[in-house]
Amino acid sequence: MKIDVFNLKGEKTDSIDLPEEIFAAKVNVDLMHQAYQRQMANARLGTHNTKRRGEVRGGGAKPWKQKGTGRARRGSMINAQSVGGGRIHTPKPRDYTQAMPQKMRRAALRSALTVVANDQKLIMVDSIEMKEAKSTDLAKALKALAGEKRALVLVPDKSEKSENLIKSGRNLAEAKLLQANYLNIRDLLSFEKVIIPLASLEVIKGYLG
After folding, report:
1. How many CA atoms lie within 13 A of 4 on its CB side?
2. Using one digit for the tens of pLDDT, what is the confidence trace for 53-65?
3. Does the pLDDT of residue 160 top 80, yes or no?
4. C-alpha 92: how far from its chain's center?
5. Where along the chain do its domains lie?
6. Arithmetic mean of pLDDT, 25-38
């Protein structure tokens, strides 16, 4: 698959062949869905907690006598139908983590990258280094590349060369900067454009090729 390469001004500078094993892979929708579900589940903290009857304070004495009051029989004030009583079938802390083999996760990423490429959401740039940390400069470059659409920018690494770029992207509402080795299914499918510098492409090829 051949694709054009642009500079930060949106001008075409070259064209390259994308590796077919990554960007022309067999699309497995079920695998992509499983990887997405796993990522969303693993992001849950699972710290929700409610008090059940045995954890609520009080309830030792019978609130009123069994007969003669005209009211319903009641043996405790901490049961579920009482205000302030224990809850039934409500959440307790739990682990939502789902396991998925590495080969399956990477196959799902290849499927997602293939979908992005087929839908023409992929934008290749020769380099995306910033001379200084300025959000306005980065926003201008992203507008030249992706227009008004929300963009995911893959950063090659977290070195000194990328420091200004990372700082420039912190305040941009319509863009997200992500290290190429942290590429994930949710971000790939959540943005309208995916901007990949050539250096980031080499990182992706290193573990998906």
Report:
1. 9
2. 989 998 888 999 9
3. no
4. 25
5. 5-9+19-38+100-208
6. 97
Give the other-Cβ count within 10 Å of 64's Cβ: 13
The torsion defined by the Cα of 35, 37, 38 and 42, in degrees rounded to 10, comes to 140
pTM: 0.84
Phi, psi torsion values for 177, nearest 5 degrees: -100, 130
pLDDT in tens, 75-117: 999 999 888 899 999 999 999 999 999 999 999 999 999 999 9
CATH superfamily of 5-9+19-38+100-208: Ribosomal protein L4/L1 (3.40.1370.10)
Q: What are φ and ψ of residue 160, in 5° steps?
A: -65, -30
**Encoded tokens for 207:** 């573990």
Integer angstrom CA distances of residue 200 from 19, 59, 206: 13, 63, 10
Would you mind telling me the total number of residues written for the chain in this entry? 209
